[in-house]
Amino acid sequence: MPGSSFLPASFEQRARTLRRSAAWALQAAWSTSPVLLLGVAAVSLIRGLIPAGLALSARGIVNGAVAGLHGGQDIAPLLPWLLLGFVLTVLEGVGSLAGPLLRQRLRDELAGRLTSDVMAHAATLDLAFFEDPRSQDALQRAKDDPAGHVTSFVATAISACSNAVQIGSLVALLVVIEPWVVAVVLALTVPYLWAQWRLTAEQHALERSRTAKRRWTGYFVSSLTGAQSAGEVQLLRLAPLLIGRFRSLMEEFRGEDWLLARRGFGRGTRFVTVATAAIYAAFVHVCWRALHGDLSVGDLAIFGAASARMRQTLESFVQLGTSALGETLYVADVIDFLNARPRRDVAPTASMPAVSRAGLELRDVHFSYPGAPEPAICGIDLTIAPGETIALVGENGAGKTTLVKLLARLYDPDQGSILFDGVDLRDLPRADLQRRIAFVFQGFGRYEATAADNIAYGDWQRLLGDRDGVAAVARTAGVDALIAGLPAGYDTHLGRLFGESDLSAGQWQKLAVARAFARQAALLILDEPTSNLDARAEHALFEQFRALAEGRTTIIVSHRFSTVSMAQRIVVLDKGRIVETGTHAELLARAGHYAMLYSLHERTGLRAAG
């Protein structure tokens, strides 16, 4: 399960996770743009040397000015030091502008790459992954600005290194004047760094534990603002309830964040107070030595300037260092998701034949959803001949949709095997197999795209941009008149998120069927293909179904017995098992489960008609 790197128990494990995440983030930045990464590093490291250079410049100016007071008023000895100070000040100013510019550009480059990587990896995972709430949490963490976390790590790590260079250069200056300043620096920095790191780890742990709650807040917002739910939410007056639950979670987050913030503030205040007291104590001692002639006025000036800068740099180093370490924990979340594999990932050992006949055989197939108390499919044996049309019938929850998703290899069986033209599905390349399958889902897609693209998506590599090909599919599927009635015909953008035209549920379903027509597939699966159509539209679609099914192995899932009648054989499921098979007439004559369902359907239809 993704998330194995979360708060490792031992220091060694934690250090290993940090090293792995840091190396991965640097590699991602380097492979995306080595020039930008080197630019960010160069600017930060150069800026790290500037404070020591400015301190040296100040020392030279002060000593030169003091010497000039006793030996004449010639400014020439001061000019090199003034020029050095001028150049360093300009570099510091330019660096403060260049650094954010380069970091933003690097973040933009990483955003496109890493988000694409997350999307591409998600496309390789099986359907069961997305139906597990724990996987949704892992996916949410990976989607939560991966480029921002990687860029932030790189930038803060480089800035921390820059501050370390500053600290090293300042310490080198201060040690010459007051050797025991090194002990002060170590005594102040190490405990504060450790305390802040623990606080950062606690913050990450808290955020990780909130992932599901964050998704809840998004759900409450979308329920009130989404077009599909807004009408019912308004009618039921659910807004106060959903807003109340949203606010309750936000108040919980705010309280927890405030507690951590106060702890961080307390630790920071103690560090600032103690560090300032220690540095001022050292400065007092340096003043005493200068008054007794052990040090020059320039030494006193450089120690005062460098020690003041030292405290700020130490605090900044700790903040940047712990921030960089904290970002590695978020980077680890991205790595964990990218390392996730399909639940039963088996390397293919066979290849698809050039021509598929789509003969299917199921041998003792079992399947259970994660956490479900009962299996969805239990011990199914079934053979479907190439070109045969069968119907799957049963009550809700009987396992019909699960079974066809197994046939399309959206799931893999827990036990048993499914053969496609005599080869186990798990031995075939998943992508090649699914290119041979056309599937009209019960929850069919309503793509925010043009009417032409909504059809072309059925075989987009062949049809996208081929208007004549799309129009031919539309005529075959019987939706050409529907499209002709749209404001811009095939170019009409469908969906309310980005356009102004929408379709009824039945019209969307017709487009979904047309999308299946577009796919030159050996196996056709229709899951409730006429559920949103009236009797007239259903009858018209039957003729298209017959044309589409010609020469293809076809599996129909339906509650409508008028739809089932086009099948050559009917398979009846109950509680995940096959209980009957036969033609419509044979099953009625048997007076079994199918006959009971048909009788119930007829009585319901008569009551509705009456």
Give your account of this protein's structure.
By secondary structure, the chain is α/β, with parallel strands linked by helices. It folds into three domains: 11-338, ABC transporter type 1, transmembrane domain (ABC transporter transmembrane region fold, Up-down Bundle); 360-445 and 524-609, Rossmann fold (3-Layer(aba) Sandwich); 447-502, no CATH class. Helices cover 65% and strands 10% of the residues. It is built from 22 helices and twelve strands. Strands 6-9-10-3-11-12 form a six-stranded mixed β-sheet, with helices on both faces. A hairpin with a 2-residue loop joins strand 11 and strand 12 (577-582). It starts with 10 loop residues before the first helix and ends with a helix. 33% of the residues are buried.
Features:
4-stranded antiparallel β-sheet; alpha/beta; Rossmann fold; 610 residues; 12 strands; elongated; 22 helices; 6-stranded mixed β-sheet; ABC transporter transmembrane region fold; disordered C terminus; disordered N terminus; single chain; 3 domains
Task: Describe the SSE topology.
Elements: H1 11-32, H2 34-71, H3 79-122, H4 127-130, H5 133-143, H6 146-177, H7 181-209, H8 211-225, H9 227-235, H10 239-291, H11 297-338, E1 360-367, E2 377-384, E3 389-393, H12 400-407, E4 415-420, E5 423-424, H13 430-434, E6 437-440, E7 449-450, H14 451-456, H15 460-463, H16 467-477, H17 480-484, E8 493-494, H18 505-518, E9 523-527, H19 535-549, E10 553-557, H20 561-564, E11 569-574, E12 577-582, H21 584-590, H22 593-609
Helix pairs in contact: 1-2, 1-6, 1-11, 2-3, 2-6, 2-11, 3-6, 5-11, 6-11, 7-10, 7-11, 8-9, 8-10, 10-11, 16-18, 21-22
